[in-house]
C-alpha cells in the first residue's frame, strides 16, 4: 500500500505500481518477466536525454506539436459563462491524442530491439496511431479490434490496412474494446519473447499506466504554458472525456497540484446510468481486478465483468485507468458523466458553432460543459481537451441524426 | 500431518509413475453434471483434480476454456456455487486432492478472508490463481498459505532462473510447469524443452513438478508424466463436454448429460492407463 504525501498529487505510483489501492501487476507469470523488462527499459529511457530528444523531434516534426490552445469564441457566447479554450489534440497527425503515447512506446520498443508490435483498439484511433508509428519505424503491426468496432469504425480499419497493419477482428465476448484487450494479452502471452505490446490507454499492468500518463502529459504541460501565455493565469477548470482515461490524465496530471483548478472527468453514461447500459466505471462500478490492474470496473456481485455500452467505441470499456480510480477515491478529480444523446447534441453543436467536427469521445466532455460553465463568471477560464476529430464517426452519427430529424 | 496433495504424489511415486491431474470448469454445463464428472474422474484413476472457477475474462485461456467459463456462467455458476460443489465433493471423496484454479477478481469480490475460510471449510487443498504473480502475494496467497491451503505456482518458459526463488518462496503442494509460452489448449511442447525445464526447476525445489498446457492425448500425458512428476489435461477434456453440449446424443437433457459424463470418464480412463503403462 502506498503512502500519500499530502503535499503532492503527483507522486504515484509507488514501486509496485500502486496508485493508492489501485494499479499493480496482476498478470500471468508468462508476462511478468516481460513487464519487469519494460519497466526497467522505461526507467532507463526516462533518464536518458537522447531518448527525450528523439521523442521531442518526432513530436514536433511528425505529430505537429505543440497543438494549439484555441479560444472557442462562439461556444463561449453560446454557453454564456466562462471562456472556453479547446486544446486541439485532434489536429495531431492521425487525428487524435493517441499518437503521443504510441510514439513514446514505439521508440521504447525500438530501443529494446523489438520489431513486432501488438495493439488493441476500440475506436480505431490507437490502432491507426500504432499502425502509423510502425510504418514510420519499419515494425510489424498487429491490431486487435472487436468485431463490432470493426463494423462501426470502418474508415479507421481501412486506414490501418493501408498503413500495413494486420487486423485481428475479435468475436469473443461482446466484440468490443474489453475483448480486444483480452485477445491482445493472449497473443502477447503466446508471443512473449518477440513482441512489444503498445497499450493504448493509461491502464494495464505497471508500468503501463504510468508510462502512458507520462507520454500523454505533453498535453497538459503545453496547455499550462499556453494558457499562462494567453491569459496570464491558470484556468478555473479542466474538462476531458474518459474511457480508459489517457487523454484526461494527460491534460490533468500537470495541473494536479494546482488545487484551485477544478478538474472534471466525463465518463460515458450511454443510455443513462439507471439503464445499466453505460460505460461509467467510476460512477457506476466498484474496484476489482482486470487486465493487469486493480481499478473501478463494471461487474456483478460475483465479480464477473459486465458489458459496457457507449455510442462512442473509444469509451466503450468496463474499466478505467488506475490513477483515475485513485484520484476519484481521494476526491481530487470530479468524475461525472454524459449520455449518448447528450454527446450527439454536443457533437452537432461544436460542428455548427466552431467548424470543428469533434470525435464522439470528446463530445461527451463537450456535453458536460453546460453544467460546468453555467455556474461560472465570464472572466473564468475552462480548458477542454479536444482529443480527437470526428471524421471516423460520421458513419455512426449521421443515420442517428437523420432519424432524429436533426440533419 | 501430510496433506492430501503430498500423500497423492508420494503414492504415485511409490508406484514408480507420474501423477495425473485433470481440469474441468465448475458448472460446465451445470452444477449437477460437474459433480457427476468429478466422481467420474476419481473412478477413472486421476491423482488430483483442478476445478476451474469460471471468470468472464480468462486472460490466459484459449477458446476451449473461455467457452467453458461462459457456459458455466450462463448456467448460473458463481463462486459461492463452486465452493458448494467442492464441499459436496469432499464429503463423497475424503482423500482426493482438489485444487481450485481461476482468476483473482471473483475472489476479491467474494472477499479474500471469507474465500480462504470457506475454501478450508469446504476441504479444498490448494489454489492456482493465474493472475497473481509472486509480486502480488500479500493479499491472498500468504494468508491462504497461513490458513493451510497449498499455493500452487505456475512456472513458464519465460520464468528465468533468477526469478525462480521469488516464485518458489511461497509455493507448496506442487509446482505447475506451463510447458508452452502461451494460452491453454494450444500445441504441445517438445520433449526436450520439458526435460530441460524440469532439470532447471528441480535444482531449486523439492516439490513435485507437473507439466500442463497443450497436453491432449494419452501418449502426450504419459510422456509429460515421465519427463516430469505429472501431467495435467484440461482443454482436451473440456472439448468433450463442449461437443456433448453442442451435439446432444439424446433429446433428453439428463440422458445427454449422463452421456457426457461417460465419454469424459472413458477418455480420462485412457489417460490414466497411459501414465500407468
Compact description:
The complex is a heterodimer of chains A (407) and B (277). Chain A is 43% helix and 18% strand.
Distance between the terminal alpha carbons of chain A, to the nearest Å? 53 Å
Contiguous uncertain segments of 5+ residues of chain B: none
Shape of chain A: globular
In the CATH hierarchy, the architecture of chain B is Alpha-Beta Barrel
Key traits:
heterodimer; A: 407 residues; alpha/beta; Rossmann fold; 2 domains; six-stranded mixed beta sheet; four-stranded antiparallel beta sheet; globular; B: 277 residues; TIM Barrel; nine-stranded parallel beta sheet; 12 helices; 50% helix; 14% strand
How does this structure look, described?
The complex is a heterodimer of chains A (407) and B (277). With 407 residues, chain A is of the alpha/beta class. Chain A has two domains: 18-59 and 97-212, Rossmann fold (3-Layer(aba) Sandwich); 66-95 and 217-403, Rossmann fold, CATH 3.40.50. Helix content of chain A is 43%, strand content 18%. Chain A has helices spanning 32-46, 49-63, 73-79, 98-111, 125-136, 147-152, 154-162, 177-190, 208-216, 218-231, 246-252, 281-284, 322-330, 340-354, 360-374, 394-403; strands at residues 18-19, 22-26, 69-71, 83-87, 116-121, 140-146, 166-170, 195-197, 237-242, 262-270, 286-290, 292-297, 334-339, 381-385. A six-stranded mixed beta sheet of chain A has the order 3-4-14-9-10-13, sandwiched between helices. Chain A is globular and about 55 Å long. The mean pLDDT of chain A is 95. Chain B has 277 residues and is α/β, with parallel strands linked by helices. Chain B has one domain: TIM Barrel (Alpha-Beta Barrel). Chain B is 50% helix and 14% strand. Chain B has twelve helices and nine strands. A nine-stranded parallel beta sheet of chain B has the order 5-4-3-2-1-9-8-7-6. In chain B, α2 packs parallel to α12 and α10 (218-227) crosses α12. Chain B is globular. The model of chain B has no long low-confidence stretch (mean pLDDT 96).
Amino acid at each position: 500500500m502506498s503512502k500519500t504525501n499530502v503535499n503532492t498529487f503527483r507522486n504515484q505510483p509507488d514501486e509496485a505500481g500502486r496508485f493508492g489501492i489501485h494499479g499493480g501487476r496482476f498478470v500471468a507469470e508468462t508476462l511478468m518477466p516481460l513487464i519487469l523488462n519494460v519497466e526497467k527499459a522505461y526507467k532507463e529511457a526516462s533518464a536518458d536525454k537522447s531518448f527525450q530528444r528523439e521523442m521531442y523531434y518526432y513530436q514536433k516534426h511528425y505529430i505537429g506539436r505543440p497543438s494549439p490552445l484555441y479560444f472557442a469564441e462562439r461556444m463561449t457566447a453560446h454557453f454564456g459563462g466562462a471562456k472556453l479554450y479547446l486544446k486541439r489534440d485532434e489536429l495531431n497527425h492521425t487525428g487524435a491524442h493517441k499518437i503521443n503515447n504510441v510514439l513514446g512506446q514505439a521508440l521504447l520498443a525500438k530501443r529494446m530491439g523489438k520489431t513486432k508490435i501488438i495493439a488493441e483498439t476500440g475506436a480505431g484511433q490507437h490502432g491507426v496511431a500504432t499502425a502509423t508509428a510502425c510504418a514510420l519505424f519499419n515494425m510489424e503491426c498487429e491490431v486487435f479490434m472487436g468485431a463490432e468496432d470493426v463494423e462501426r469504425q470502418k474508415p479507421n480499419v481501412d486506414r490501418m490496412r493501408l498503413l500495413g497493419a494486420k487486423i485481428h477482428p475479435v468475436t469473443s465476448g461482446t466484440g468490443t474494446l474489453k475483448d480486444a484487450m483480452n485477445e491482445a494479452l493472449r497473443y502477447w502471452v503466446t508471443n512473449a519473447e518477440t513482441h512489444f505490446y503498445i497499450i493504448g490507454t493509461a491502464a494495464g499492468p505497471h508500468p503501463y499506466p504510468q508510462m502512458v500518463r507520462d507520454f500523454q502529459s505533453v498535453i497538459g504541460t503545453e496547455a499550462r504554458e499556453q494558457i499562462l501565455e494567453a491569459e496570464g493565469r491558470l484556468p478555473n477548470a479542466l474538462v476531458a472525456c474518459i474511457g480508459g482515461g489517457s487523454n484526461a490524465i494527460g491534460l490533468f496530471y500537470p495541473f494536479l497540484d494546482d488545487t484551485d483548478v477544478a478538474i472534471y472527468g466525463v465518463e460515458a453514461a450511454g443510455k443513462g446510468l439507471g439503464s445499466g447500459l453505460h460505460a461509467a466505471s467510476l460512477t457506476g462500478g466498484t474496484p476489482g481486478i482486470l487486465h493487469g490492474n486493480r481499478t473501478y470496473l463494471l461487474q456483478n456481485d460475483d465479480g464477473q465483468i459486465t458489458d459496457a455500452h457507449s455510442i462512442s467505441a473509444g469509451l466503450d470499456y468496463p474499466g478505467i485507468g488506475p490513477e483515475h480510480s485513485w484520484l476519484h477515491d481521494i476526491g481530487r478529480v470530479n468524475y461525472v458523466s454524459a449520455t449518448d444523446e447528450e454527446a450527439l447534441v454536443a457533437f452537432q453543436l461544436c460542428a455548427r458553432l466552431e467548424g470543428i467536427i469533434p470525435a464522439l469521445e470528446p463530445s461527451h466532455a463537450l456535453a458536460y460543459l453546460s453544467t460546468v460553465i453555467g455556474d461560472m463568471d465570464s472572466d473564468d477560464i475552462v480548458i477542454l481537451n479536444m482529443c480527437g476529430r470526428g471524421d471516423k464517426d460520421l458513419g455512426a452519427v449521421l443515420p442517428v441524426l437523420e432519424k432524429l430529424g436533426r440533419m | 500431518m501430510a496433506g492430501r496433495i503430498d500423500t497423492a504424489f508420494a503414492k504415485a511415486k511409490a508406484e514408480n509413475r507420474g501423477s495425473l491431474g485433470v481440469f474441468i470448469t465448475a458448472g460446465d454445463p451445470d452444477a449437477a453434471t460437474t459433480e457427476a464428472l468429478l466422481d467420474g474422474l476419481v473412478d477413472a484413476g486421476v491423482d488430483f483434480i483442478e476445478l476451474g472457477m469460471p471468470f468472464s475474462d480468462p486472460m490466459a485461456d484459449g477458446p476451449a476454456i473461455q467457452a467453458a467459463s461462459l457456459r458455466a456462467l450462463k448456467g448460473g455458476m458463481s463462486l459461492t456455487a463452486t465452493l458448494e460443489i467442492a464441499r459436496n465433493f469432499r464429503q463423497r471423496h475424503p482423500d482426493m486432492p482438489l485444487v481450485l484454479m481461476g482468476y483473482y477478481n471473483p475472489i476479491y469480490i467474494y472477499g479474500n478472508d471469507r474465500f480462504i475460510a470457506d475454501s478450508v471449510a469446504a476441504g479444498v487443498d490448494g489454489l492456482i490463481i493465474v493472475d497473481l504473480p509472486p509480486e502480488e502475494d500479500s493479499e491472498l496467497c500468504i494468508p491462504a498459505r497461513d490458513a493451510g491451503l497449498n499455493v500452487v505456482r505456475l512456472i513458464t518458459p519465460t520464468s528465468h532462473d533468477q526469478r525462480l526463488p521469488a516464485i518458489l518462496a511461497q509455493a507448496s503442494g506442487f509446482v505447475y510447469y506451463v510447458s508452452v509460452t502461451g494460452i491453454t489448449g494450444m500445441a504441445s511442447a517438445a520433449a526436450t524443452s520439458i526435460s530441460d525445464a524440469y532439470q532447471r526447476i528441480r535444482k531449486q525445489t523439492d516439490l513435485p513438478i507437473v507439466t500442463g498446457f497443450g497436453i491432449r492425448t494419452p501418449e502426450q500425458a504419459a510422456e509429460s508424466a515421465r519427463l516430469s512428476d505429472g501431467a495435467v489435461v484440461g482443454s482436451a477434456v473440456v472439448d468433450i463436454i463442449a461437443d456433448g453440449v453442442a451435439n446432444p446424443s439424446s433429446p433428453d437433457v439428463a440422458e445427454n448429460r449422463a452421456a457426457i459424463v461417460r465419454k469424459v470418464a472413458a477418455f480420462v480412463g485412457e489417460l490414466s492407463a497411459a501414465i500407468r503403462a
